[in-house]
User: Fold these one by one.
Assistant:
Number 1:
Amino acid sequence: MADPPGCCSTCATCLLCPYSCQWITAKKEKRKGLRTTKYDCSWFLFLFCVFLFTLVWLYFAIIILNDFHNFNEFIFRQKKLWLDWSLVLLIATAVLISYSSVLLVLALCLQLCGQPLKLHWVHKVLLILTALVVAAAFTGLGIKWAEEWKSAWISLQATGPFLHIGAVGGMTLLAWPLASFIYRTRSTGLRVFVLLVYCAAMIALYLAPLGITSPCIMEENQLPPKPALVGHRGAPMLAPENTLMSLRKAVDCDVQVFETDVMVSADGVPFLMHDEELTRTTNVQAVFPERAALNSTAFNWTDLQQLDAGSWFLERRPFPTVQNLSPGDRQEAAEQRIPSLEQALEAAKHSNLSIMFDLRPENHSDYQNFVNVTLGVILQSGIPLQQVLWLPDGFREDVKQQAPGVQHVYGRKRVENEKEPVLHVNLPYQDMSSEEIRQYRQDNISVNLYVVNQPWLFSVLWCSGVSSVTTNACQVLKEMEHPIWLLPSSTYFMIWIVVDCVSLLIIIWAFVLMK
């Protein structure tokens, strides 16, 4: 295998050293007997597959960031350890993708320079470990977090057109080393096989847009109104969740609904709290260490008022935005206490803000009394009942009789032969397709989807016509005046044709040039 013109011995040596872990000069007598064997080619193919496998995992890692706060909460409930695991995920993924990328680039450069692809055994072991780690990550995702597969499918509606362009570009760049390999190999069968596989892959990529669908491929005048924002436990990126400060920050973000969770104390006072235990969002372990593991409903209101519901937010920093808080906001956050439902209703009434809540825990033996006590507080608060969105399914008929003006929101899709029409639904964003959202919109059914934090996801749901979204990132989505991208079908068709034609011309030019 003679060196092609322009490949200096120094460059060849610098490429061989990190790839083969051997300091071999490019002189022929030093390289005598070193050739790229079929065994070496199989390891190059494995390297390429590991790179693609890791690249797919990187895509998944970016997509699941929308829901990663739920994972952090899950780990805390299991291990009582708070850490932003998204940083661990991204750092580990970056290391794996960087390693496989560097090796792949080295291999392609060696092929272009006519050097042997002698992958060192250390790299082989590390590549196998990389494949096993990524496979374990995918397996864990499928077992413990299966709904994220639906999230990935939805993400393709936002990224599909751009992934297509990127894939065509990447495969087009492979034309140079591929042409070098084909012209150098002596095996006609291998040459034909590789060429056929490459051509089949390119044809599939050229025709891929036929299967790409996105609600954001539409005319500008067809774009539905921007979805309303529902503050998930207020504005939890700007203030401790389920506090009056969080409610006020949500109002500043122009949210229309404050979404929260209600529990009832041992002496019958409804208060705002999401977790069944108080350990994550209060200092109960310091104030009542012997009772810290008890259910939140086991504490009376006097005990609850002694707890600090804000300092944890500054200490654990559940979101990166905490470090950007002003000194005044930090002081206010540190002074937060658990608010009663009465206080939250009063604040919502003065801000003309609707309030939507779950009543927990649903399996409590005294749940009917919880419903009655909560209804009593709502009716006494003086808040207009149309501003109250009732989520709990238990004893819903009693609620309709005692407070007929309350709006009922259902955590399920509509079914045939409903006794009463369903006007509001509240579902995970993974549970409704774009087609179902459009159909509900046509039937005047309000659809709220949760939890939507990333602009790409908000853009897809906006284009689909969703009525509102529950979000942790109200300060981000508030600033969006338009979906991230919106393309008329004619424009996308033109981009598709131009990209494919340019790619084909570059591939032909690469093969002619390398010959």
Number 2:
Amino acid sequence: MAAEAEPGRRRRCCAQDTPDVPKVPPDSRGDSDGPRRGSLCDRHCAAINNVQGDLGDLGCHLHRPRVPPAMSTPCCQQYSEEVCESCLVKTTLTAENAVEANKLSNNYKFGFKKWKSHVTARPWEDRSEIVKELYSDLNVIRGSGGSTLTCGNVLYLLLFGWWLSLLYILVAAIMFVTVFGAPYGQLCWDLAGYFLWPFGKAIQKVEVPKSHRACEVSVGESSALLGGATPRRWHPRCWVASGYWHCASTTAWLCLGYPVLVLAHGLVCVTAWLLIVLIPVAKLSARATSRVLLLPPERVLIRHLRMSEVPLEGEVILCCYRAANPYYYKYAVDGINVFAVNLLPLVLVTLVLGYVDSHNHLTGSAIKFTLALLSIMPLSYYIGMAIASISAQSNFAVGAVVNATFGSITELTFYITALIKGSREGNRCYAEVVKSALTGTLVGCVLFVPGLCMVIGGIRHQEQRFNSRSAGVSSALLFLSVGGVFAPTLFSKVYGKLVCGECHNVTQNPLGHYLCHNCHFDLMDHNGTLYYSHVQPLVYTVSILLPAAYLIGLFFTLKTHTHIYDIHISDCHMPGHHHSAVVHWSRWRALVILLLSTLCMSACADLATEHISPILTNSTISQYFIGVTVLAMVPELPEIVNGIQFALQNNLSLSIEIGNCIAVQVCMLQIPILVLFTIFYPTNFTLVFSDLHVYASMFSVVLMNYIFMDGKCDYFQGTVLVMVYFILLAVYFFAPSPSGC
């Protein structure tokens, strides 16, 4: 748990990366100088690691320090070899403030959601030049912009430039026809050439006469989506004072020309923003609409820039060199990734279309099911961001409660709505789909998530190491949880009665071979004596023991054996980095977003289960395959992205823990909650799985533990896990549909 510190103080936390190497605790020195020595050694480690407070675009710096001989000798002579040896076995994590330090510490705690994105605003000087360029306004003239003939600029010409230029020419003709709007017609004519190819050109605002400078007002607004602070703007009320508003040219412009161009630029802005890599074009259109088109024509000057030319007079309003930037996938709005921002309107469209068009007059069930499933992805992101924000700003108890309550809300919402619908319709297929989704989540998080992270991380790093002791705790809980979940299934296989739907004599001989279909173990023989007297009590017992084991695991890793993760938050800070925490979401805001996202998640899950029935009945694909792929892995996409980002930073421990924690929560929290739900609301859900689910889950857990045995891995081992996962998917794809579907 992160310790409290001054708001402006830079925090550093150290995590043990190689637990097999013995480490001398700070208090083993016996004197009052122990803490002081540890602090000085921490500063020495920071100097070794060259952590001058800059993390680039990673948010935390994670690597194994190596001590040069010239630097390690004075430290060891002054403070002893043991203290400096403790530095060698530490991994350094650097955070900008106390809130980020809490978030990083929570990432290493068992049972807490692992979150990569920042929950606070990063200091501008700590960002890389690439990221700074993403958030800069299009009003900076470079000394040498390079060639403007790029693929992105040509794409702009093909998508927007040609028809936008023609529209300006048309508006210019209309303005010339009105005679009064001739000045604006000339402006549109000049802008037609500019927007055909705006690269390497600049739009400047000509200085106003001194008699009119009093009309300029400073506007301190900022555009949260398309830029930073907005410079001074010409206010319409000043037009009244200076005579512009009453002149016929301005009236013709505001009535005939400006609305048409605003609609065109709005279309360009929305389209470019949704394409993400063309966000500079969206900024260009937004700035042209809000600045250029509202200026009097005589105050707008368009200049062609040369390679080394820097205009000396007039304010630069627009200056663009590139239409596309591939790094805009890092762009965030108020801490929210641009992909989550773009998918948020999809949630509104899904809810309106799903509940307004309830009789499928506009679209079919397949489209509504797809939209509802896609809407779960941004909602999962917002839920994860809210949980991380609340946990980072709260104490350990509040964070643990929030993670335990809302950590599995995405999956549970869908499972419960599906079971309710299956119970109302008397259709056992929904219960089988839920079991397939549970198994798919377990198998995917054990094989696919860590395997994919190993492959992608192994492309950048030849060999990756992780904390084998912390991974061993999760592996032990996985063995326990899988054994407990499938214990009723194994019990039914031993004591159940095999019943087949129909059998045919192949050899026409009464003693010959019979071919039987739809065979299953019947637990309801003799009025359900076996199930109600033996299987059901076993299910309830397992549902009580699994959450208890989960709580014991929390107590073990977070209270009595915290040294397994060895998270320390020190008070050392680097000079020049005194930053207070500016959180993106406050605790109350995060709580409101968490509740709203959960409510929308429930609505989307209800729509998904409402329109999945035609897909299950009419599809030629096995219901097993639909459950283990689409329904299981789509809600986990934000977690997969987080795992990949951690792996690219050579922090495979967190990538592995993401998959293990989800798998453990499926067995120890989600399944017992579903069993508890069936007590109060009877459904067709029983904790008896098919043989395919049992074999796939157990084989996946055994293989995962074998791969993670030595605490190191590479891309080849990750490829093995991914290939085994795809083989299991092929088995589910060709498997016949479960009984009852």
